[in-house]
Amino acid sequence: MKEYTDYLDELLDFLRIPSVSTLPEHGDDMIRAAGWVADAIRKAGIDFVETHVVDGGHPLVFAERIDDPANPTVLLYGHYDVQPVDPLDEWKSPPFSPEIRGGAIYARGSSDDKGQLCTHLFALRELSAKWGDKWPVNIKIIAEGEEEAGGASIEKWAAENHEKLAADFAVISDTAFLKRDTPSIDYGLRGIVYMEIEVTGPGRDLHSGVYGGGVMNPGSALARILDSLIDLETGRVLIPGFYDDVVAITETDRRLAAEVPFEESKFIEQAGAKTCWGESGYSTYERITSRPTLDINGITCGFQGEGAKTVLPRRASAKVSMRIVPNQNPDDIARKFCEHVNAIAPPQVSVAQVTGAPVTVECRKIHAASGVLLNPESPHISAARDVMEEVFGARPVLIRSGASIPIATIFNVELGMDVVFLGFGMPDDALHSPNEKFEIAQFYKGIEAVMKLLERVGKR
Amino acid sequence: MKEYTDYLDELLDFLRIPSVSTLPEHGDDMIRAAGWVADAIRKAGIDFVETHVVDGGHPLVFAERIDDPANPTVLLYGHYDVQPVDPLDEWKSPPFSPEIRGGAIYARGSSDDKGQLCTHLFALRELSAKWGDKWPVNIKIIAEGEEEAGGASIEKWAAENHEKLAADFAVISDTAFLKRDTPSIDYGLRGIVYMEIEVTGPGRDLHSGVYGGGVMNPGSALARILDSLIDLETGRVLIPGFYDDVVAITETDRRLAAEVPFEESKFIEQAGAKTCWGESGYSTYERITSRPTLDINGITCGFQGEGAKTVLPRRASAKVSMRIVPNQNPDDIARKFCEHVNAIAPPQVSVAQVTGAPVTVECRKIHAASGVLLNPESPHISAARDVMEEVFGARPVLIRSGASIPIATIFNVELGMDVVFLGFGMPDDALHSPNEKFEIAQFYKGIEAVMKLLERVGKR
Q1: How far is the alpha carbon of B26 from chain A, nearest alpha carbon, in Å?
Q2: What's the pLDDT score for residue B183?
Q3: What CA–CA distance (Å, rounded) separates A305 from A312?
Q4: In angstroms, rounded to a whole number, what is the distance separating the alpha carbons of residues A49 and A38?
């Protein structure tokens, strides 16, 4: 394995920028991270680099090098923003002070997605030296800073810049191997509909002794709503119409799934769970890849410190997201969700002696994206399979993933482009969790794989 | 009205000590606050002052002056600890930098209970000058630092020191007027049973795209439990056996309640609520004073920042407290609560393909105390009514309060002592909430009332 230690040092610098896109206090860090990406692109021999800010969002970095319009064109995508880091006290080393332990880089964003984005940027730098003045492939790059925050900027900008983004296919490196020795290429992704529910009661936190029993508790009202969303016995989402547009699992899905060495015991171990759980009538693999689901991502209400505080809280709120499958419409699902929440909300209930609404319930969409289903036998996916096999010594299995990459929807559904998911993460990289890591061997081999794929395209 | 401006300055100093008993980081502040109380007692001419620390808890301050054992003895009680201050950003002035606005002292603990405790200490200082070397009343004082944190120290110490605490009756100033122009004296208090529920799922916060649908969400399991505790339609607590030992509202209660100028519209306005709500078949006044109830005090789960984070949280927890009425046994209620929670908890449910418990549910008691019911026509309560009428110009109504003062249980039930609640707070003092206040006129008149009550006892 060729080692690219200089590139490793550069990646560590990139990881030191705390580019958390959902937290307003990191605005300047987002600009620094976008600047870092633009510089890295220029160092790869691409001079045309633009930065676009859409509606005050985080910068989009777009770049292109078209030496001959007759050559094939590849669009490379990555994101420079990262997830928040809490709970901070569970990190063994600080999330933005990358530390190398046991051959892996521990830092927020190492695997998702700065490390993987860098495989593209550094592969181009290597190829640039090789190719010289005349590149056999036209390259376009789009890097965004809102992948973890709904991606509003790229969604809007892409809708207005179809021409600029046009390419033969797109390469996205933001996924992981199925298992340590089994590379995998996604041909399907779930979409996401991320909602927030807020229940407001009294004008302030009240003394529960003085007011308890006389005023409705927003926490209880929220519990009622949250308890109405999913059936813990059957694992079914209870929102009326939720499953209306779900496409049944196909024969091709079943055939490809049979090749996937998914181990339920390994899955449970990786989750640190005691057992698996989910929708009746489906295997765990189907549940997490091809079936829609609903999860509470967070709940906030009243006193959260140590010990006891006797408040009747003035508000209670929850973040709830649904993973949707191809053909489910995100706007339709968001609407059905809010309709259901409003139907369950206590104001609709007739309570004795009540003259108005005891609490106010608000339901809003934070972001949403459709799922994606690609042709698993497309020529680009086949080429990627060959290249991955060559570099990693094992032929990738074709899988449907449960995660959501909204940009894939834009590339595939809106721009009609084929998409190749060339992912170098490991299943235990702890994405979105404390102690996220990216293995150095995956980083180096990832650079090789991107190089080989682009060289292969250049030879066509 | 006589003004005690020097005592006001001393009170402001006392309020600057952030003696939050439930937060471990305030340990030193608790010791400072206890020291402040001990000093103030000595300044009142009482030389016998002891400080007791029970099992590493916050100091108890005990003091006594017995000039003639044949004289009547009064036990004065107050607490120097205060509630936590969050949400901090809703305070107009910092909670521990007392500010005087519109004739009131704004600070955490101003009304609950430092300001009221000080009416005792400063009344004694005035009487000491008047009485000279021979006091006509024996005085005992017990001040604790755990009233807002379960009161474990005083509970244990009192159980072992019945003799030391013995008195003709106890005076507790930790309550409020029913209305601005209507002083009130409590003859009943609700008890409290404060519980914590913790649901643990996967070993860490998981990526909801990768694991969602395959692992049970602890937030959903918690929502199910919380939704099973109270019926929002009928306002009834759903824990089996919860109402078994509740004593029905009596004729005396009804007669005294009829004298109480309780205004529902005012109650709603003070709560900042849109409407009242509660148990069917009872008035709001009955619901908040004489009926047991249950409130969610806080919920914590997963991501609570701004925007979106797609985690499947590893844990979800809630603090739930029940206000119980006299004759309900706190230990029995805590046991029934846990039995119910465990019966509702998902592990008991048969889920298809589940081989173990998908989440772990723990239920524990944080603290508990019985309710209290006194004889509303006792001689001490009658004397207190006369004194309050003299000082405040209106005869106090006799009420049952919805709040809990566990020490009253100890004094009345354990030590068999009559108790007088001589409260000087106002109903809009915002106890346990941001912008807690204590009105200066109430402070000055409170000092007068305590003096008059003790003088009257001394003349017997």
Answers
A1: 12
A2: 97
A3: 15
A4: 7
Average pLDDT over residues B209-217: 94
> How buried is residue A278: exposed, middle or buried, by Cβ count under 10 Å (0-12/13-18/19+)?
buried
Provide, as residue numbers in chain B, all residues whose Cβ is less than 8 Å from the Cβ of A87.
Answer: 205
Task: Estimate the crossing angle of helix A115-131 against helix A27-43, to 10 degrees.
Answer: 20
The answer for residues whose C-beta is within 8 angstroms of residue B123's C-beta and 6 or more apart is: B447, B448, B450, B451, B454
Amino acid symbol at A217: N
* pLDDT score, position B351: 43
CATH number of domain containing A310: 3.30.70.360
Mean pLDDT of B398-423: 91
Please check whether residue B441 is in contact with residue B393, taking contact to mean a CB–CB distance below 8 angstroms.
no
DSSP B148: G
Q: Whole-prediction pTM value?
A: 0.80
In terms of domains, do A225 and A100 share one? no
Cβ-contact A208, A308 below 8 angstroms = no
A154 close to A59: Cβ distance less than 8 angstroms: no
Q: Is the domain of A95 the same as that of A33?
A: yes
B358/B200 Cα distance (integer angstroms): 9
Sign of the CA dihedral running B95, B175, A202, B345: positive
Q: Report CB contact under 8 Å: B227, A229.
A: no
Q: For the segment A218-272, what is each residue's pLDDT rounded down to a tens digit?
A: 999 999 999 999 999 999 999 999 999 999 999 999 999 999 999 899 899 989 9
Q: Using an 8 Å Cβ cutoff, are B18 and B107 in contact?
A: no
Q: Is residue B259 part of a domain?
A: no
What is the per-residue pLDDT across B272-292, written as a single tens digit (0 to 9) for each?
A: 998 999 999 999 999 999 999
The three state secondary structure string of B86-102 is CCHHHCCCCCCCCEEEC
The 3-state DSSP class for residue A392 equals helix
Of residues B210, B275, B303, nearest to A298 (C-beta): B303
Predicted pLDDT at A346: 72
Q: In this structure, what token pair is assigned to residue B393?
A: 């110009």
The answer to whether position A271 is within a domain reads: no
Contact A306 B431 (CB under 8 A): no
Q: Do B410 and B338 have their domain in common?
A: no
Tell me the shortest Cα–Cα distance from A96 to chain B, in angstroms. 18
Using the beta-carbon criterion (under 8 Å), do B303 and A280 form an inter-chain contact?
A: no
pLDDT at B91 over 70: yes
Q: Are A54 and A99 in the same domain?
A: yes
Q: Which residue of B has its CA nearest to A325?
A: B209
Tell me which of B343, B369, B395 is where a domain ends: B369
Count of residues for chain B? 460
Residue in the structure block whose two tokens are 């570099």: A391
Task: Give bridge partners of residue B35 from the DSSP assignment.
Answer: none
Give the domain extent around A357.
Answer: 191-246+292-368
Supply the DSSP symbol for A59: P
Question: pLDDT category, B347, cuts 50, 70, 90?
Answer: low
Shortest alpha-carbon distance between residue B7 and chain A (Å): 28
Is B319 in Cβ contact with A272 (below 8 Å)? no
Cα–Cα distance between A174 and B270 in angstroms, integer?
A: 53
Instruction: Count other C-beta atoms under 10 Å from residue A319's C-beta.
Output: 26
- Ranges of residues in chain A with a pLDDT under 70 are 347-356, 460
Token pair 């009064």 in the structure block, residue = B74
Closest residue in B to A371 (Cα) is B209
Cβ–Cβ below 8 Å for B150 and A308 = yes
d(CA B123, CA B121): 6
pLDDT at residue number B178: 87
Say what the pLDDT of residue A256 is: 92
Number of domains in chain B: 2
Contact B117, B173 (CB under 8 A): yes
- State the residue for tokens 């490379």: A76
Label residue B353 by pLDDT band (50, 70, 90).
very low
Domain presence at residue A416: yes
**Residue located via tokens 């929850």:** A318
